[in-house]
Write a structure and sequence with these properties.
The complex is a heterodimer. By secondary structure, chain A is mainly alpha-helical. Chain A has 18 helices and 8 strands. The relative contact order of chain A is 0.12. Chain B is globular, with a radius of gyration of 32 Å. The chains are: A mainly alpha, B mainly beta.
Chain lengths: 478, 1004
C-alpha cells in the first residue's frame, strides 16, 4: 500500500513535466517586432506607399545622391580649386585620380544604387501595382521609374566611359536591372550593358515618369523633376534641342522662382522656391555627410574639402557667389555665415581654411535640382544648337538672369561658349556637376584627357569576385 | 561455442569466489571533515567482481575473505584500501580529494569523476584566482588549460575576452563557447552600444564565488548541450556550504597598475628634423612645399602657432593614469542539519590605466540547500550584481585616450595663455572629451536558480531546475559642447537594454550498479527563452554643459526601441556504462529546436558516443605501478551544433524607416526558409597517463573537428539589391594536438608542482561556395587557408637608389614596384597562432607559497592599423615612432623605412609593412603568499590568516613593436562574422595593465 502511494506521487510529479514536454513547440515561432515579413510588406496600399518612401530614403543615402555622387564628381574634377586635406583614404584616391577597386566609397555606391533599383523594381512589379487605385498607381509607378532612371544615369556617368554623341556607344555601362529580387534564386549574375543601352533605359524611364507623375507631389518627385533630370540627360548626351525643350518647359510653366541671394538656395529646412527637387533632411532623419566633409563650423563638419584662393579669384569681386567671410569665430554656426565662403572655424578637425557655405547644416535639405540649372541648360543647349532656338530668351539673357541674381556684372555682348561654361561652374560648383561637365566638354582634367580610363570608377572588387559575368574597366586591370 | 565460453568464465569467477573463507564485513563510511555519512560510496573487493554501495546511513555489508583488500571509492574523495583482518567491522573516514584522478567534474546534467571520463573535459585550477586583480575570470585562467585560447582585446576594463576552444568552428556564427553557470546558460553577448567596443557580461561574476570551472572540449562532453556546443562549453559552479560551524572569510586585495608596455615616440627635436626633411623632399625649386607654401607657413598652417615655441610634450603619458584596484570580499558558509548555505558579498573598485576608465562591481550571493525530506531536497542560488563602468571611446575615435599619441610633440596639452586644454592641436585634443564628456554604463543583474530533486525510487531521481538571468544595462553618455562633433550645444545619449533569459530543465537520473556493471542514465528536456528589449535616444542642444540629461535637450535627434526574442526547446539523454572500473562507455544525444531557424529545418539532433579503457586496471599491467601508474585510452565521436546567428536570420524582412516625417519601409533581408544548424563532427582520441605513482600525470589529445553546413552570410551579387543571405554552405576544419602535464616535482615539506600545457590547432577553410569574404580588406576567409588570414600587398622594403617604398608585384611575382596600385595583394600571414600554452609553477614551503603563471602564444601575426599613421616616415604630421628616424636619406642607404615625404604616401599604404609577428611569452602572474602558523592564528581566534603580494603582467617577451601583442580591435558596428574574421588587428589599442597587488585573507 505504501508503495502505491509513492508511485502515485511520482506520477503526479511527472504530469506537469510531461505536459511541458509537448506544449512548447509553438514557442519556437517568434516573430520579429521591429520588422515585418516581406509577405506582408507589399500587400496593402499603405505599405506600398511606405516602400516608396523607403526608396527616397535610400536615394538620399550618403553613398548616392546624399553625398558620394557629389564627392566623386568634385574630387575627380579638381585640379587645385579644391583640395582634400582630410585623412580618409577614399576621397584621397579620387583626388589623385587613382582609385582602387576596394575603395569603400565605390563599393557602397554600387551596393546602394542597386538596392534603390531593386526597391523601384519591387514597386514596379505588376503584383505590387495591381493593389493600387489608378491615381496612386500612376504616381507610384512614375516615382519609381523616376528614381530608377535617375540613379542609373548617375551610375553610367561614373562607371562607364563618356557618352559620345553620334557614336555607337558600345562601351560598357552598368547592368540594367528591371526585375525585382523576390527570392534568393533571383539573385543571379548579370553582365554589364552598353552605355547606349543604359542611356536608352534612362530616357525611357524618365520619359515615362514625366508622363505619369503629377505636377505637385509634396516634397517628392513631380513631372517637373522628371523633366529637369531629362534635360540633364539630354545635355549630357548632346541632344541639345531636347535638353532646351525640357528646361524651357520647366522655366516657363513650372511653379519655381529664383531666390534673392544665391546663398538662400542652400541650408533650408523646407524647399525653397528655387528647388525643383531636394532631398529632405530633418533632425530625426538626415544625411549629413556633405556637410561633414565640406563644412568647418561649430560642431558641424570636418572641413576636409578646402576651397582654394585660386578658385575665389575666378569670380568678379562683386559676385556674391565668390564672397569670402573672413572674420568668423569658433562659435559660428551656419546661421552666422552670410557669404558663400567662410574661414573655417570647425572644432572637429580642420579649420582656418576656406569652406563653402553651400553645405553647412546637417539637418537642412540637400537641393539637387535648382531652377538656376534650367536656365544654364537652356542657355547652353540653345548656344550649342543655334537652330533650336527654344524659349523666349537668348543664351545671353539666360546667363544674365543668373548673373543678375548674383550681383555679377552683366554681359553686354553675346555670350561666348567659355562664358556659358564658366557660369555653370560659378553657379553650380560643389554641387556634383563638374566632372560630368568637363567630360561633356571634352576638356582635360589636369594632364588626363576627358575620356581617360582612370576618370571612371572601377567595378567594386567585391562585385567582381561574386559575379564572373562582369568585365572590369580597363584601367583597373593593368 | 559461446555457451562454452560463458560457462568457463562463470566457473573462473566461481574459482575466485570460492578461494579462501568468506566472512561478512560491515561498516560505516563517513566524511572525515564532518563525520557525516557518505552515501553511495562503492566498496569493492579488489581483484573480484564483488562490490556494493553504501546506503543512506553510509552503511555497507560485503563478504570477503581475510587478507583480501577492500577498495572504498567515492567521487571527490580519495580512494582508500583496507586489508581485511580479523575485525568484522571496518569503518572508513574518507578525505576530500580536490586534485587528481578522483576529483569531481561537473558535466552537463550531472557530475562525474575524472577517472571515469570518456570525453575531453578539463577542470581548471581555480586556486588563487580570487587573489588575481583581473576583471573577468577568463583573464585569470589564461594559459591554464590546453586547447583553450584566451585573448584579451585590450587593456580597457570590462571588455569582451575572446575564448576559442579548439579553434574557430564557424565563419559567420558565434565562435565563443557556451557558458553555463549553476546549470543556466547565461547571457554572454555584449549589450553595449555598437559605437564602442563590446563589453563582457561575464565580468559580472565575482571570482571569489567560483567553486569550479570546467571546460568541455570534445563532442562527447559537449553534445549534451547540442546546438550550442560546437565551440565547447564552460561550466561554472559556485560555492556551496558544508554542514558544520559557520566559517567566515574576509579577503581584501589592493593594488596599483600601470601600462605593461609603452611605445617610443619622437621628441620635439627629432620631430622637427624628420618633418623638415619630409617637407624639403616634396618642395619645388622655390622652396614651396607641394608648390604651395613655404615650409614655415606649412608648419604654422598644419601644426599651429606653437610649432616654433620650443615645446616638447610627451602625449603618450597623457593617455595613461595610475590605475588601482581595491577589492573586498566577505563570505560565510556553513550549515546545520538539513540546511547548508554559502553567502558572499564582493565590492571591487578598479581604476584602469587609461585615463577616464573605471569600473566598480558590487555582488551579493546566497546559495542555499535544503534537504526537506528523505526524498526531497531543493536549493537556490541567487546572485545580485551591479557593475558600473566609466568607459573611454572606441579605439577608432579621436576622443579615445591613446589617439593622443598622434599629436605633435611641438604642441602643448594646455594652452599656455588660457590655461585651458589646448585646442590648437593637429587633431582634436581627446582630453577635452575626458573633461567635458562622460561615458557611463551601469548594469544590474540578477542570476537566480531554483532547483528541486526528488528521489522517486532509490536509484531514480527527478530534478527540476528553473533559472533566470535578468540583465539590465543602461548607458548614459554625454558629450559637452566643446567635445568633437558635439557643438554647438552638446549631445547626450541614453540607452537601455534588458534581457530576460529563463531556462527550465526537467530530467530524470537513474543510477544503478549490478555487480561490476554500473549504469548512469540521464534524460529530460529543457526550454530556454531570452527576451531582449531596449531603447536608445540621442538629444542635442543643452543650455550649458551642466545639464546632461536628455530632459534638457533642445531636441531628440535619434530615437529607437526594439524587442527581440529567441528560444530553444530541447530533449536530451545520456547513458554512462562502466564495467569493473575499467571500461567506460557513454552515449548521449540531444534534440534541439530553435526559433532562429527556418520552418523547414527547425530541429537538429546531436548524438555522441565515447569509450574509455583504463589499461592499468588490467591484471597484465600489474606490478609496474611504480613506473606507469595510470594509463587510460579515450576515444569519442559526435556531432554538435551552432546556432549563434542573429534572431530572424531566416525571414525575409522589411524594417521601418523614416523620411521627411513619413514612415517608410525598407527591405533588409531575403528569406532563407531552409536555414538550419551548422554541424560540427568531432573525433577525439586521448591518452591519460600517470608515471611514478602519479608523480607525473598528464593527457594528450588528438582531435579533428569538421564543421559542415556552415552558417554563412553568403555574398550575393549586389546588383540583386541584396549583399548576402544566411545560408548553410561550406565547410571548415580544425585539427590539433593538446598536451597537458602535471608534475609533483617535490613533495613533503617543500612542495613544487609544475604544470605545462600546449596546444596546436590548425584551422582550414575547406570551402565557402562563393567569393572570398573580407570585412576589412585585411583579414580574409579564403578556401585552403585559416580563418582571418591576412591578404594584403607585400612590402618589399626600400629602393636604396631613391628611397621609394617597394612592393612585390604579386603572389607569383617577386619583382618589385614603387607603384602600389600595380602590386597585387597576397597572403602574407595568419592571425591564428601555431600553438599556445602555459607553464605554471607552484612552490610551497612552511607557510609560504609562490605561484608563477605564464602563458605563451606562437606564430600569429598582428596588423597594426595605426601603423600607416604612426610609422609612415612622416607622411603626415602625426607623431612618429622613433624607428622612423632610420629613414632613407641618401642613395645607397639600406633601411626598411622609405624616404620621408610629406603627403606622398611613400610606403604608407596598407601593406605587410605594418604586419608583424606577435608571438609572446608573458609572465602573467606571480603571487607570493604567507599563511601564518595555526598556533599564532588560533590565538587571534581565527582559523587562518593569509597575506599575499603579487604582480600581473610583469614582463612580456615579444618582438611585436606596438603596445601589446595580445590585442584585437574588431571595430564598431560589428557583426558576429566580423568579430570572427577580424583577428590580430591593432588600432591605437591599449596595452594590458601591469598590476602590483597586496592582500590579506582572514578566516574565522
Amino acid at each position: 500500500m505504501k508503495n502505491m502511494i509513492t508511485r502515485n506521487k511520482t506520477w503526479l510529479l511527472l504530469v506537469p513535466f510531461m505536459m511541458f514536454l509537448f506544449s512548447c513547440s509553438e514557442k519556437l515561432d517568434i516573430k520579429p517586432k521591429q520588422s515585418i515579413d516581406a509577405e506582408a510588406a507589399l500587400t496593402t496600399p499603405d505599405n506600398v506607399q511606405a516602400t516608396l518612401v523607403g526608396a527616397y530614403l535610400k536615394a538620399r543615402s550618403a553613398n548616392l545622391f546624399g553625398s558620394q555622387f557629389n564627392e566623386f564628381s568634385e574630387l575627380y574634377a579638381t585640379t587645385g580649386d579644391m583640395i582634400f586635406i582630410g585623412t580618409y583614404e577614399e576621397p584621397r584616391e579620387f583626388e589623385d585620380k587613382e582609385a582602387t577597386t576596394t575603395n569603400a566609397y565605390v563599393e557602397t555606391t554600387w551596393i546602394d544604387a542597386y538596392q534603390l533599383i531593386n526597391i523601384c523594381n519591387t514597386l514596379l512589379d505588376e503584383e505590387t501595382l495591381a493593389i493600387l487605385d489608378d491615381e496612386d498607381k500612376s504616381r507610384i509607378e512614375g516615382e519609381a521609374r523616376f528614381l530608377r532612371g535617375w540613379v542609373l544615369f548617375e551610375m553610367i556617368r561614373l562607371f562607364g566611359l563618356p557618352y559620345e554623341p553620334g557614336q555607337a556607344n558600345s562601351q560598357l555601362g552598368v547592368p540594367i536591372m528591371l526585375n525585382p529580387t523576390k527570392d534568393v534564386a533571383d539573385a543571379v549574375n548579370v553582365a554589364r550593358n552598353t552605355v547606349a543601352q543604359c542611356y536608352a533605359q534612362v530616357i525611357e524611364d524618365l520619359t515615362a515618369a514625366r508622363d505619369l507623375l503629377p505636377p505637385a507631389n509634396d516634397v517628392y518627385a513631380t513631372s517637373w523633376t522628371a523633366r529637369a533630370v531629362l534635360a540633364r540627360v539630354y545635355l549630357q548626351t548632346g541632344q541639345y534641342s531636347a535638353a532646351a525643350t525640357e528646361a524651357n518647359y520647366v522655366i516657363q510653366n513650372g511653379p519655381f522662382a529664383l531666390v534673392g541671394h544665391p546663398l538662400q538656395a542652400f541650408n533650408n529646412t523646407s524647399n525653397s522656391p528655387e528647388d525643383i527637387f531636394s532631398f529632405q533632411n530633418n533632425v530625426a532623419s538626415n544625411t549629413s555627410w556633405l556637410t561633414v566633409m565640406y563644412a568647418s563650423l561649430n560642431g558641424m563638419g570636418r572641413g576636409d574639402y578646402e576651397i582654394q584662393q585660386v578658385f575665389l579669384d575666378r569670380f568678379n569681386p562683386a559676385d556674391l557667389r565668390g564672397m569670402f567671410q573672413e572674420d568668423t569665430e569658433e562659435s559660428y554656426t551656419i546661421d552666422n555665415i552670410t557669404m558663400m565662403y567662410y574661414k573655417g572655424v570647425g572644432t572637429i578637425i580642420n579649420n582656418g581654411g576656406i569652406n563653402t557655405a553651400k553645405w553647412g547644416d546637417y539637418y537642412a535639405n540637400i537641393p539637387l535640382i535648382r531652377l538656376a540649372e534650367m536656365y544654364l541648360i537652356r542657355a547652353e543647349a540653345n548656344f550649342e544648337d543655334p537652330g533650336a532656338d527654344i524659349g523666349p530668351r537668348t543664351p545671353t539673357q539666360d546667363i544674365n538672369t543668373i548673373r543678375a541674381r548674383a550681383n555679377a556684372p552683366l554681359y553686354t555682348g553675346p555670350v561666348t561658349r567659355q562664358q556659358i561654361r564658366d557660369e555653370r561652374y560659378f553657379e553650380l560648383c560643389w554641387e556634383g556637376h563638374r566632372l560630368h561637365d568637363l567630360k561633356r566638354w571634352k576638356v582635360n582634367i589636369g594632364s588626363y584627357p576627358y575620356n581617360a580610363g582612370n576618370l571612371i570608377l572601377p567595378i567594386p572588387f567585391r562585385e567582381m569576385e561574386v559575379n564572373d559575368l562582369l568585365v572590369q574597366n580597363e584601367w583597373y586591370t593593368k | 561455442m559461446r555457451k562454452l565460453l560463458l560457462t568457463s568464465m562463470i566457473s573462473c569467477f566461481m574459482v575466485f569466489t570460492l578461494f579462501g573463507q568468506q566472512k561478512t564485513i560491515t561498516g560505516v563510511i563517513t566524511d572525515k571533515t564532518d563525520g557525516t555519512p557518505v552515501i553511495g560510496a562503492t566498496v569493492l573487493v579488489e581483484g573480484t567482481s564483488t562490490g556494493t554501495a553504501t546506503d543512506l546511513d553510509g552503511k555497507y555489508t560485503i563478504s570477503a575473505a581475510p587478507g583480501a583488500t577492500l577498495v572504498f571509492r567515492f567521487i571527490g574523495m580519495k580512494s582508500q584500501q583496507v586489508t581485511v583482518g580479523t575485525d568484522d567491522v571496518i569503518n572508513v573516514a574518507m578525505e576530500a580529494d580536490d586534485i587528481g584522478l578522483d576529483e569531481v567534474i561537473v558535466v552537463g546534467y550531472g557530475s562525474a569523476i575524472k577517472r571515469e571520463l570518456t570525453g575531453s573535459i578539463t577542470k581548471v585550477e581555480t586556486k588563487g584566482i580570487a587573489e588575481m586583480p583581473t576583471v573577468s575570470f577568463e583573464s585569470a585562467i589564461q594559459g591554464k588549460t590546453s586547447g583553450v585560447f584566451i585573448e584579451q582585446a585590450s587593456g580597457k576594463l570590462g571588455e569582451t575576452v575572446k575564448m576559442r576552444i579548439r579553434g574557430s568552428s564557424s565563419v559567420s556564427a558565434n565562435n565563443q563557447p557556451l557558458y553555463v553557470v549553476d546549470g543556466v546558460p547565461i547571457t554572454t553577448q555584449s549589450l553595449s552600444n555598437d559605437d564602442n567596443q563590446p563589453t563582457s557580461p561575464l565580468a559580472d561574476l565575482a571570482m571569489t564565488d567560483v567553486e569550479s570551472i570546467q571546460i568541455l572540449k570534445d563532442a562527447s562532453a559537449a553534445a549534451i548541450y547540442g546546438s550550442r556546443a560546437s565551440n565547447g562549453v564552460v561550466i561554472i559552479q559556485t560555492k556551496r556550504g558544508k554542514s558544520g560551524a559557520t566559517k567566515f572569510d574576509l579577503q581584501y586585495t589592493t593594488g596599483v597598475s600601470e601600462p605593461s608596455r609603452l611605445m617610443e615616440w619622437l621628441d620635439a627635436d627629432q620631430y622637427l628634423e624628420l618633418f623638415n626633411e619630409a617637407m624639403d623632399n616634396v618642395s619645388d625649386e622655390d622652396g614651396l612645399v607641394w608648390g604651395w607654401m613655404p615650409r614655415d607657413e606649412f608648419w604654422e598652417y598644419f601644426v599651429g602657432p606653437q610649432w616654433d615655441d620650443g615645446h616638447n610634450t610627451d602625449w603618450q603619458a597623457e593617455a595613461f593614469q595610475k590605475g588601482s584596484i581595491n577589492r573586498i570580499n566577505l563570505s560565510a558558509s556553513g550549515g546545520t542539519g538539513n540546511t547548508t548555505f554559502y553567502t558572499g558579498v564582493t565590492y571591487d573598485d578598479t581604476k584602469g590605466i587609461l585615463r577616464g576608465n573605471t569600473m566598480n562591481k558590487l555582488s551579493a550571493r546566497l546559495n542555499l540547500e535544503q534537504k526537506a525530506t528523505e526524498k526531497l531536497s531543493f536549493g537556490v542560488q541567487m546572485n545580485i550584481i551591479r557593475t558600473e563602468m566609466e568607459r573611454v571611446e572606441n579605439d577608432n575615435a579621436y576622443a579615445t585616450p591613446l589617439q593622443l599619441v598622434a599629436q605633435s610633440p611641438l604642441t602643448t596639452v594646455y594652452d599656455p595663455e588660457t590655461g585651458e586644454l589646448n585646442t590648437n592641436t593637429i587633431y582634436y585634443n581627446g582630453l577635452i572629451s575626458l573633461r567635458d564628456g562622460s561615458n557611463n554604463q551601469t548594469s544590474f543583474r540578477s542570476l537566480a536558480n531554483l532547483n528541486a530533486t526528488y528521489n522517486i525510487f532509490k536509484d531514480l531521481a527527478f530534478k527540476s531546475e528553473f533559472g533566470t538571468d535578468i540583465y539590465d544595462l543602461r548607458e548614459k553618455n554625454f558629450f559637452g559642447r566643446k567635445t568633437i562633433g558635439a557643438g554647438p550645444a552638446g549631445e547626450a545619449q541614453n540607452r537601455s537594454v534588458r534581457v530576460i533569459n529563463y531556462n527550465w530543465e526537467n530530467y530524470l537520473t537513474y543510477i544503478k550498479a549490478f555487480g561490476v556493471h554500473h549504469i548512469n542514465l540521464v534524460g529530460g528536456m529543457s526550454f530556454q527563452q531570452a527576451n531582449s528589449t531596449g531603447s536608445n535616444i540621442f538629444g542635442k542642444g543643452f543650455p550649458t554643459d551642466d545639464f546632461t540629461n536628455i530632459e534638457n535637450a533642445a531636441e531628440a535627434t535619434d530615437f529607437s526601441s526594439w524587442e527581440d526574442a529567441t528560444s530553444f526547446l530541447s530533449y536530451f539523454a545520456r547513458a554512462n556504462y562502466k564495467i569493473n572500473e575499467k571500461y567506460f562507455f557513454t552515449l548521449s544525444g540531444r534534440m534541439d529546436g530553435s526559433s532562429r531557424f527556418g520552418i523547414d529545418n527547425r530541429y537538429g539532433f546531436f548524438p555522441a558516443a565515447s569509450a574509455g579503457w583504463i589499461i592499468t586496471q588490467e591484471d597484465f599491467m600489474a606490478g609496474i605501478e611504480n613506473v606507469l601508474s595510470y594509463l587510460k585510452l579515450r576515444a569519442s565521436y559526435g556531432l554538435t551544433g551552432n546556432s549563434g546567428i542573429p534572431d530572424y536570420a531566416h525571414l525575409a524582412l522589411y524594417t521601418g524607416v523614416n523620411y521627411a516625417g513619413r514612415n517608410g519601409l525598407e527591405a533588409t533581408q531575403l528569406q532563407s526558409r531552409e536555414l538550419g544548424w551548422e554541424t560540427t563532427a568531432q573525433m577525439d582520441i586521448g591518452v591519460d597517463f600517470g608515471f611514478f605513482n602519479n608523480r607525473i600525470t598528464g593527457e594528450v589529445d588528438y582531435y579533428q573537428k569538421k564543421t559542415t553546413d556552415l552558417l554563412l552570410y553568403r555574398t550575393l551579387p549586389a546588383t540583386s539589391g541584396f549583399t548576402g543571405v544566411w545560408s548553410n554552405v561550406g565547410e571548415l576544419e580544425n585539427k590539433g594536438v593538446e598536451l597537458a602535464l602535471h608534475a609533483n616535482i617535490l613533495t613533503g615539506e617543500f612542495i613544487w608542482t609544475m604544470d605545462y600545457n600546449m596546444a596546436f590547432n590548425q584551422n582550414t577553410i575547406i570551402n565557402i561556395n562563393g567569393p572570398e569574404i573580407t570585412p576589412n580588406g585585411l583579414n580574409y576567409v579564403i578556401e585552403g587557408q585559416p580563418i582571418g588570414v591576412f591578404k594584403i600587398v607585400k612590402y618589399a622594403g626600400v629602393d636604396p637608389d631613391n628611397g621609394d617604398a617597394l612592393y612585390y608585384l604579386g603572389p607569383d611575382n617577386n619583382e618589385t614596384t614603387n607603384n602600389f596600385n600595380l602590386a597585387e595583394p597576397q597572403i602574407v600571414g595568419s592571425p591564428n597562432p601555431d600553438f599556445t600554452g602555459g607553464f605554471n609553477n607552484y612552490f610551497q614551503y612552511k607557510g609560504f607559497d609562490l605561484n608563477v603563471l605564464t602563458s605563451f602564444v606562437y606564430g600569429n601575426m598582428v596588423y597594426n592599423g595605426g601603423g600607416r599613421y604612426q610609422s609612415a616616415n612622416a607622411d603626415w604630421f602625426d607623431n612618429q615612432t622613433v624607428d622612423q628616424m632610420n629613414r632613407w636619406q641618401n642613395p645607397g642607404d639600406i633601411t626598411d623605412v622609405p624616404q620621408a615625404r610629406l603627403g606622398d604616401g611613400n610606403g604608407s599604404k596598407v601593406s605587410s609593412r605594418y604586419l608583424s609577428d606577435a608571438s609572446y611569452f608573458r609572465l602573467r602572474s606571480i603571487n607570493l603568499g604567507y599563511n601564518l602558523p595555526v598556533s599564532l592564528v588560533s590565538k587571534m581566534k581565527m582559523s587562518s590568516l593569509r597575506l599575499y603580494i603579487g604582480v600581473q603582467n610583469l614582463y612580456t617577451f615579444t618582438n611585436y613593436k606596438g603596445w601589446d601583442p595580445e590585442v584585437n580591435y574588431t571595430g564598431t558596428g560589428r557583426t558576429t562574422q566580423n568579430t570572427n574574421i577580424i583577428q590580430g588587428y591593432d588600432f591605437y589599442t591599449a596595452p594590458q595593465a601591469r598590476t602590483y597587488t597586496l592582500g590579506i585573507n582572514l578566516s574565522f
